[in-house]
Write a structure and sequence with these properties.
Elements: H1 10-19, H2 26-38, E1 42-46, H3 52-63, E2 67-71, H4 78-81, E3 83-85, H5 87-100, H6 105-112, E4 118-120, H7 122-127, E5 137-141, H8 148-160, E6 162-165, E7 169-172, E8 178-183, H9 191-195, E9 198-202, H10 207-217, H11 223-236, H12 247-259, H13 267-277, H14 281-287, H15 290-303
Parallel strand pairs: 1-8, 1-9, 2-5, 5-8
Antiparallel strand pairs: 3-4, 6-7
Bound molecules: adenosine-5'-triphosphate (ATP) and magnesium ion.
């Protein structure tokens, strides 16, 4: 385990990430380093499956802090993201108070709108923690899927790390949590929110990085297979496809080929397993046959360099 204070250099952080099998290049590691040191949320955008979500998980492991995850979707509201009153418990409490015959209206209201009846959802969980528990890593995943109103609400939370509950008051984080936001850029996130964060775009990895990711994540993959697969996927990404394969697909493909005891790629095995890599029939058709053969020939050449 390592605390934020103990991280003294970008190299050290890069090594710590690597120990959790995450390969971060220099620019990404610098963004993470600054986000930790400046205590600013890290806003990550990039293609699907390039390791955005994974960063929050890895940071939680490196810093040994709990991971609190908020998955965004259309219609996500405050009840699901921040807090909700526990109606069932409130009702029960009212019944009990009635039965005991000592209902004082004001007291009753104060009682049932107190902390004991609050259901904390991820954002409140992340903010309302005692220092002993350690500040968590808060992952706000796929923010582009949430509505703009929610984004506006988030703006407030990320500026002051506080949440106001009318019946209770303002709850403020004793120390800001480590915050990672991700977006697949299906829509632009507002400037005001981005301004409160450090921004980093994660691109598809270059050959070297992707090869290192494969070695780290699928250590039992034969080197030749790993090289050919990465070279193949790298070249495949320059094709005009509806959905380009991410690192996640590369890893799945290598694992599938290892499960099939393959030592290298061939036309036949590509044909039989292409569904692990490409998930749209049009893309599969585009690649099938001569295109796959050409890419494979290049991959054999580049992979064995
Ligand atoms: N740099 C990396 N080092 C190690 N593993 C990586 C790296 N990049 C991606 N991966 C692996 O690729 C897979 C996909 O990563 P992740 O889920 O974080 O992608 P994502 O960018 O959040 O994708 P999506 O947009 O689909 O949510 C994971 O299994 C992750 O471990
Ligand atoms: Mg993700």
């Amino acid at each position: 385990m390592i605390s934020i204070e103990q991280i003294e250099s970008i190299d050290q952080l890069q090594e710590a990430l690597r120990s959790q099998r995450y390969i971060g290049d220099r620019s990404l590691t610098t963004a993470i380093y600054l986000s930790l040191k400046l205590r600013k949320p890290l806003f990550l955008e990039g293609e699907a499956g390039v390791g955005k979500t994974e960063i929050a998980k890895v940071l939680s492991a490196v810093l040994e802090r709990p991971l609190i995850r908020l998955q965004c979707y259309e219609g996500l509201d405050v009840n699901t993201a921040v807090y909700e009153w526990n109606y069932t418990r409130q009702m029960l409490q009212i019944r009990l108070m009635e039965a005991s015959g000592t209902v004082n209206q004001e007291e009753a209201i104060e009682n049932i709108f107190g902390p004991d009846f609050l259901l904390k959802r991820p954002l409140l969980q992340a903010i309302d923690r005692s220092t002993e528990d350690g500040q968590p890593v808060l992952l706000i995943d796929e923010l582009d899927r949430a509505d703009e109103e929610f984004e506006a609400f988030l703006l407030e939370v990320l500026s002051d790390f506080q949440i106001t509950i009318p019946e209770i008051g303002t709850i403020r984080a004793s120390e800001p949590p480590v915050v990672v936001l991700t977006s697949n850029r299906t829509r632009e996130v507002h400037d005001a929110l981005k301004r409160r964060c450090l921004y980093h775009w994660i691109d598809f990895p270059a050959f070297e990085k992707e090869y290192n990711i494969v070695l780290a994540k699928v250590p039992d993959a034969p080197h030749r297979l790993a090289q050919e697969v990465v070279a193949f996927v790298q070249e495949l990404r320059s094709e005009d496809l509806y959905k380009l394969p991410g690192v996640a697909e590369t890893l799945d493909w290598v694992s599938a080929l290892v499960a099939l005891d393959r030592e290298d790629l061939s036309d036949e095995v590509i044909n039989d397993t292409i569904g692990v890599l490409l998930k749209y029939q049009d893309d599969i058709q585009h690649v099938a046959g001569p295109v796959a053969q050409r890419i494979l020939a290049n991959a054999k050449m580049n992979g064995s360099k």
